[in-house]
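Re: the request from the purification team.
They wanted to know what the chain is likely to look like in 3D before they choose a buffer screen. I agreed to run a prediction and write the result into the notebook, where they can find it.
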Amino acid sequence: MYESAESGAGEMTVAAAFAGMRRVVPVMFRAGCPDCRGRFELAASALRLAIGASSRTTFYSFDCPDCGAAVRKPAGERIVELLTGGGVRTLRLHSTV
């Protein structure tokens, strides 16, 4: 039952606010390595996103868990949206011109 703030019982505790929530499942991203052709899933913490002034300077990167290669791939608008929404660390690149 809802009680109004006027009755003095209208404040919600943190415990009450999160009572219905369950464990949060981390977001996983599918990726592939062009060097060893490995296919795998990576947590958001394993990816890095760099957003530049153009499509040529906007990319995501990660280290291949299979062969250790440093992988860098272009990131279009949809990829940027998915990665930022999934909690991937983002670096905004600024032009020096």
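For the purification team: The longest helix spans residues 77-85.
Please add any questions underneath this entry.
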